[in-house]
Write a structure and sequence with these properties.
Layout lengths: L12 H13 L4 H8 L1 H8 L4 H7 L5 H8 L6 E2 H7 L4 H7 L2 E4 L2 E4 L1 E7 L4 E7 L21 H9 L5 E7 L5 H6 L3 E8 L2 H14 L4 E4 L11 E6 L24 H9 L4 E16 L4 H10 L4 E10 L1 H11 L8 H15 L1 E12 L8 E5 L9 H15 L3 H6 L3 E2 L3 E6 L9 E6 L6 E4 L1 H9 L6 H12 L3 H17 L3 E2 L1
Helix pairs in contact: 1-10, 2-3, 3-4, 5-6, 13-14, 17-18, 18-19
Bound molecules: S-adenosylmethionine.
S-adenosylmethionine binds next to helix 8, helix 9 and strand 7.
């Protein structure tokens, strides 16, 4: 059985405003807390260990130390110190279910974490991190997850253009909406979990950020509306229906159906030109190439799409990982639950589970551009700027015929390096690899023609002039080399090696 939470009663606006002031006055910010804890203790907390943090705070008194003990370190603090850090707020926050007073000590029942981007200090309300210091990881079915690695991946993947309307589907603690509000005039955040909506409301008020909260499943709360950007980190765990449902990760739909519904439903809420960006897991079923399954979902949308699989787990790895996430590792019933999950995978013909992301864009072209690829290698975040660049170059290529391509004066991306392989001292390399240093750090094996082409693209010469010069050097027929190079040139632009 999962544990259950204290009831969360949204605190009054006045209480949240007063709390915000206390947090700001104490410098309870990302920088303030990290500075107080130090790097070692900060990193330990990211590994769910508070001991180095408690040591770092030994001898420290005052509001910042108290708030850091209370929330990130989840430790009891003396009532007098809590009152000093949160004057007049201990009782109302206890009534709201965020704190509990027991005798002369106060503890947190829910988390209030500092968070931020380059320009803003925010605070996020969510449930306490389970399993701190090796404690139980069992959580309530309506547990509201804090900022997870998946949250930050999505936040960095999102295209951050100034837009009119943005949708945060499955808002949880409200983290995506904080980011959306920095570049969208209007943000709508939805969730099926009332506790999540209550936490997100606290997050919004504490951070002094406006977003509209709506209850409901998938696109139902926004039916008939249009958005320029939809971001979602949905409950994508590929699992059988039935049994305990942790709403932050289990959709209640079988397998990867929730992702299919989000993808196929995207055009119904996307404004022309709008992006829908989804973090997802998907099943590899019965020998069918995973790409073709995803392509079926995407193709029906009429959107351009760039889908990246970052990781592939086998069924046993996957079930084990999520059973541990639910705090079931080593618990009674673990083996039976593991066995049942594997049995369900086998019945469904699921041979692996892919993890990655999808970026769809409603472009309404006759032939949408769909790229579905495996990229398990290191990347550099944030990727949002590269996703936007991909969309722009797809538009460019769609309107460029061969003459335009040959008369373009492309510029090589400034992070391209060339690696050559071969025996030391050899005059000619056996293999040439071009490698990008940023974003999706692609590598591409090329021949001398393509290496020369990319090398010469500095915005001065046209691609036609460059190819003709290479043809002359190699004693090749210019027209033939042009024809052979054109499709590669398009790929080089699509992948961002060259741009114009
Ligand atoms: C993995 S959490 C993501 C939370 C947050 N957006 C983030 O990026 O960290 C998934 C969220 O989706 C919500 N959710 C679950 N089923 C849903 C549904 N059918 N429709 C909308 N939201 C749902 C959960 O309650 C949870 O808050």
């Amino acid at each position: 059985m999962a544990t259950s939470h204290s009831r969360l009663v949204p605190p009054s606006r006045g209480t949240v405003t007063a709390l915000r002031k206390c947090l700001m006055d104490a410098d309870y910010t990302v920088d303030g807390v990290t500075g107080l804890l130090g790097e070692v203790a900060h990193r330990a907390l990211l590994r769910d260990v508070s001991v180095p943090g408690m040591r770092a705070l030994a001898g420290h008194r005052g509001p910042l130390a108290t708030l850091t003990r209370l929330w990130p370190l989840q430790s009891g603090v003396p009532l007098a110190e809590a009152e000093q850090a949160l004057p007049g707020l201990v009782e109302p926050l206890a009534a709201a279910g965020l704190l509990i007073r027991s005798g002369e000590a106060v503890r947190a029942l829910a988390d209030v974490r500092p968070y931020g981007d380059d320009t803003s200090d925010w605070w996020v309300a969510c449930d306490l991190t389970p399993g701190l210091d090796g404690g139980s990881r069992r959580i309530g079915t309506d547990h509201v997850l804090g900022i997870s690695p998946a949250s930050t991946t999505l936040a960095q993947l999102a295209v951050r253009d100034p837009v009119g309307r943005a949708l945060d589907l499955g808002t949880g603690c409200g983290v995506q909406s904080l980011h959306l509000a920095t570049h969208a005039a209007e943000v709508v955040a939805t969730d099926v979990n009332e506790r999540a909506l209550a936490m997100a409301a606290i997050t919004a008020a504490l951070s002094d950020v406006d977003f509209e909260l709506r209850a409901g499943s998938l696109y139902a709360p926004v039916a008939g509306e249009q958005f320029d950007l939809v971001v979602t980190n949905p409950p994508f765990v590929v699992s059988p229906v039935g049994g305990e449902r942790l709403v932050y990760r289990d959709s209640g739909l079988p397998g990867d159906e929730v992702v299919r519904r989000i993808v196929t439903g995207a055009p119904s809420v996307l404004a022309p030109g709008g992006w829908c960006q989804v973090l997802a897991n998907w099943a590899h079923v019965g020998g069918q190439p995973w790409e073709s399954r995803i392509a079926e979902w995407v193709t029906g949308t009429g959107c351009d799409a760039w889908v990246v699989q970052r990781e592939l787990l086998d069924p046993a790895e996957y079930a084990q990982m999520w059973l541990a996430d639910a705090g079931l590792a080593g618990a009674p019933g673990w083996a039976a639950a593991y066995d049942a999950w594997l049995g369900w995978f086998a019945d469904q013909g699921i041979e692996g589970i892919g993890m990655g992301w999808l970026s769809l864009r409603r472009t309404e072209r006759d032939e949408p551009v769909v790229v579905i690829e495996d990229f398990p290698y290191e990347i550099e975040q944030p990727l949002g700027v590269h996703v936007r660049g991909w969309g722009r170059r797809v538009d460019l290529l769609a309107s460029a015929d061969d003459d335009v391509m040959l008369s373009a004066r492309p510029v090589r991306a400034d992070d391209v390096v060339q690696e050559t392989y071969g025996p030391p001292g050899a005059a000619d390399p056996e293999r040439i690899v071009l490698r990008r240093q940023r974003g999706v750090r692609r590598a591409r094996s090329v021949d001398t023609v393509v290496a020369a082409l990319v090398g010469a693209c500095d915005g001065e010469l046209t691609t036609g002039q460059i190819v003709d010069a290479v043809a002359a050097l190699l004693d090749a027929e210019a027209a033939v080399l042009r024809a052979d190079t054109l499709p590669i040139l398009r790929e080089l632009v699509a992948e961002g090696w060259l741009d114009f």
